[in-house]
Write a structure and sequence with these properties.
Layout lengths: L9 E3 L6 E3 L12 E3 L4 E4 L13 E3 L4 E2 L6 H5 L7 E3 L8 E2 L13 E3 L5 E2 L14 E3 L21 E3 L6 E2 L13 E3 L4 E5 L12 E3 L4 E4 L13 E3 L4 E5 L12 E3 L4 E4 L13 E3 L4 E2 L15 E3 L6 E2 L13 E3 L4 E5 L19 E3 L17 H35 L19 H7 L8 E4 L3 E7 L5 E7 L6 H12 L10 E6 L5 E6 L6 H6 L7 H20 L5 E2 L8 E3 L5 E3 L6 E2 L6 E3 L11 H6 L1 E3 H17 L14 H9 L16 H21 L10 H22 L1
Parallel strand pairs: 1-3, 2-4, 3-5, 4-6, 5-7, 7-9, 8-10, 9-11, 11-12, 12-14, 13-15, 14-16, 15-17, 16-18, 17-19, 18-20, 19-21, 20-22, 21-23, 22-24, 24-26, 25-27, 27-28
Antiparallel strand pairs: 29-30, 30-31, 31-33, 32-33, 34-37, 35-36, 38-39
Length: about 725
């Protein structure tokens, strides 16, 4: 075509199944003004002679398999002096860095799209020379360093996408000069410092994504001046303080995500003014007070997540008016009273309400029935408090003080044991004989499983309570050290996705045991590899989010970070509601605040350990991230990393990499692909996203791996997409 159609001006080959390399001869069609070869299977390099197309205004090469070493083609394109739109993203470029020569491209260039093509290095400051740029998209690459201040000179810029990179530093104040900016996406980087107050001057902003970074301080009140903002994502940062009082000024906002921060105070009443809001998340903050009754005015709301806060009071019955509400979650607060039953509430499960001990309602939600109603007569209440409640409370207090004094005297007569170090909500001491009786003499019929340093037995207490008893094998070297480590870890940690310790037992007979919460559904390993049990894609994704949340808490939720060191399906236990709990901290490590890694001789399980752990004994939180990546791939593929098919240079990771692009069916668990049509496509899309997260966790260099906060955020986004797709299928 290049040789025999010299007068050709426009060539459109996009959205086909063309393969092979882009022919060098295309540059002979010197009259070309538009060339679109996107959405094909072209491979090889981008020709270095495209600069011969001096009249070229539009070049689109996205969504191919182009693998140029470096970006030398950009040098050639500097000869295309009328080029207006350049698209070459979504290609697996290798070892490419964006050269400074990018600043020498056409002064007419309006669109520069280089998304998801493995660009490394920093963003060259020369990009600020492209004064007519309207849109820059460098998202989904491996960019490092800081955002160049020169971008602030691009006065025509309307869209800036730098999300999903590893950019550091603060947001340069020069970006506040971009008066025409409508879209700013900096999601999932390592940006820090405060959110610049001057962003409130960008009144053209429609979408602002700053989530999954390390921003601190509070939300600048100036942001409420963005009256035409449609989407605001600030989740997964370290933002604190109260929510903006004037939040109601975002009147056209459709989506607001403030989850996974440290916001405190009450929910402002101004939220009710956000009439167009469809998605709102405050999950995992420190919000107090009650759920405003005025939430019933948010008639467009489809997604509402207020979980893991300190909310109190009742769930407003008026929320039954929200007819479009598909997802609702208020779990793990301090809510009380009756759970509404009308409207969309009839579709919600216990997952939406668990962790609120004082809630009552329908039997299907597995909460107590609402048998008694509060006294309406305030005088009756007062009399009841004065004549009945106060004397009873006083008596209980006196008895409690006597018991505490007697117990303290007894404790002084005994040597301190490890069980004294574990803070328990309801304390209970156990003797060796009690545990022996509860487990029928540690009978093999009660054996739940064996570990490196001990065995776990199911036990039944006299009151009928079922427990799990982990007995440490004193004859094994390191077993008692393992007991001490588990006690040290578990006495300092409390999280819904960690196995709870009820008590411990330690005596002079070389007997040490932990009494643990019993998990009736056993281990994840049992569910994955049993022929009689099945986990669907949503259940598997929920388990992944649970484990990731536990690791996020261990790594970032304590003054002393904890490294688990032994992630595998056997150490993930499932309760009666199929909520996952991480267990077995026998070889866990605690890091001092000023230390990010340590060396150890303790060996983790082969197949799951990070390369730096196996070769040098280096332990860090990034080692847990690697193991979690292997776990993600195992859950989706239903293949152990120690499977006999993985021998020599071939591993679970390499098998996923080589198969994921050619045939997803080869790697995904066949049980997940037993569906048909759109249902099958939905599962495949979800599985692919999870495997990609797993591979990002398992890169060779520890510093290039994701943080657990990023992983939790990505998995939750995958879940939201899956639930949306499931709803569409219905």
């Amino acid at each position: 075509m290049g040789l025999f159609l010299p007068n050709m001006e426009e060539l459109y080959l996009d959205v086909n199944q063309l393969v092979g390399s882009i022919p060098m001869s295309i540059s002979n069609a010197s009259q070309l003004t538009r060339l679109d070869m996107s959405n094909n299977y072209f491979s090889g390099s981008i020709p270095d002679n495209l600069g011969n197309l001096r009249n070229l205004k539009f070049l689109n090469l996205v969504w191919n398999n182009l693998t140029s070493l470096g970006m030398s083609f950009l040098f050639s394109l500097t000869n295309c002096r009328v080029l207006e739109k350049l698209f070459f993203g979504s290609n697996p470029f290798i070892s490419g860095e964006l050269p400074g020569v990018v600043g020498n491209l056409s002064s007419s260039l309006e669109v520069f799209y280089a998304r998801e093509c493995s660009i490394r290095g920093s963003i060259p400051s020369e990009i600020g020379n492209l004064s007519h740029l309207i849109s820059i998209d460098l998202g989904g690459n491996k960019l490092i360093g800081q955002i160049p201040t020169t971008i602030g000179g691009l006065e025509e810029l309307q869209s800036l996408s730098l999300e999903d990179n590893k950019l550091e530093g603060s947001i340069p104040s020069e970006l506040c000069h971009l008066n025409k900016l409508a879209f700013l996406f900096l999601t999932n980087n390592q940006l820090s410092g405060q959110i610049p107050a001057c962003l409130g001057d960008l009144t053209s902003l429609r979408q602002l994504g700053l989530d999954s970074n390390m921003f601190s301080s509070s939300i600048p009140s100036s942001l409420t001046r963005l009256n035409y903002l449609l989407i605001l994502y600030l989740s997964s940062n370290s933002l604190s303080g109260p929510l903006p009082i004037e939040i109601g000024k975002w009147k056209v906002l459709t989506s607001l995500d403030l989850s996974n921060n440290q916001f405190s105070g009450d929910i402002p009443t101004g939220v009710a003014d956000l009439k167009d809001l469809t998605g709102f998340s405050l999950s995992n903050n420190r919000i107090m007070g009650s759920i405003p009754e005025s939430f019933d005015e948010l008639l467009s709301l489809e997604f509402l997540d207020l979980s893991r806060n300190n909310l109190s009071g009742e769930i407003p019955k008026s929320l039954e008016k929200l007819r479009y509400l598909k997802y609702f979650n208020v779990s793990f607060n301090r809510l009380e009273g009756e759970i509404p039953e009308g409207g969309s509430f009839e579709n919600y499960s216990i997952e939406s309400f668990k962790g609120n001990e004082a809630l009552c309602g329908a039997a299907r939600l597995h909460v107590p029935n609402c048998k008694t109603r509060p006294l309406r007569n305030s005088k009756a209440k007062t009399k009841l408090i004065i004549y009945v409640a106060l004397p009873i409370a006083s008596t209980i207090l006196v008895v409690a003080l006597i018991i505490i004094i007697l117990q303290n005297r007894r404790r002084k007569d005994k040597l301190p044991t490890q069980e004294d170090m574990i803070p328990l909500g309801t304390w209970r001491r156990f003797s060796y004989h009690e545990l022996r009786q509860a487990t029928d003499g540690f009978n093999d019929s009660r054996l739940l499983g064996n570990g490196s340093y001990g065995s776990v037995f199911q036990g039944t207490l006299p009151d009928g309570t079922i427990i799990a008893v982990k007995v440490f094998k004193f004859e094994l070297e390191g077993a008692f050290k393992s007991f001490d480590v588990e006690c040290d870890v578990l006495r300092n940690t409390r999280h819904r996705n960690l196995v709870k310790v009820i008590s411990s037992c330690s005596n002079d007979l070389n007997f040490k045991a932990l009494v643990l919460e019993f998990m009736p559904n056993g281990s994840l390993d049992k569910w994955l590899y049993s022929n009689n049990q099945y986990l669907d894609i949503l259940q598997r994704l929920n388990i992944m989010i649970d484990v990731a949340s536990a690791l996020e808490y261990l790594h970032h939720g304590n003054a002393t970070p904890v490294i688990h060191c032994d992630l595998k399906p056997n150490n993930v236990l499932l309760d009666e509601d199929m909520v996952a709990h991480l267990s077995d901290f026998g070889i866990a490590k605690l890091l001092c605040e000023e230390v990010s890694m340590i060396q150890t001789m303790t060996m983790a399980t082969f197949g799951y350990m990070a390369p730096e752990y196996g070769m040098e004994g280096i332990v860090s939180t990034k080692g847990d991230v690697y193991s979690f990546g292997i776990l993600l791939m195992e859950i989706i593929t239903r293949k152990k990393p120690t499977d006999e098919m993985f021998a020599g240079e071939r591993s679970l990771k390499s098998w996923v990499i080589e198969s994921i692009s050619s045939s997803l069916n080869q790697v995904v668990d066949p049980k997940l692909l037993s569906t048909i049509g759109r249902e099958d496509l939905k599962v495949k899309n979800c599985a692919l996203s999870i495997l990609q997260v797993g591979l990002e966790c398992c890169v060779e260099l520890p510093n290039e791996r994701l943080h657990m906060k990023e992983i939790v955020t990505q998995l939750k986004k995958i879940k939201v997409t899956l639930l949306r797709d499931m709803e569409r299928v219905r």
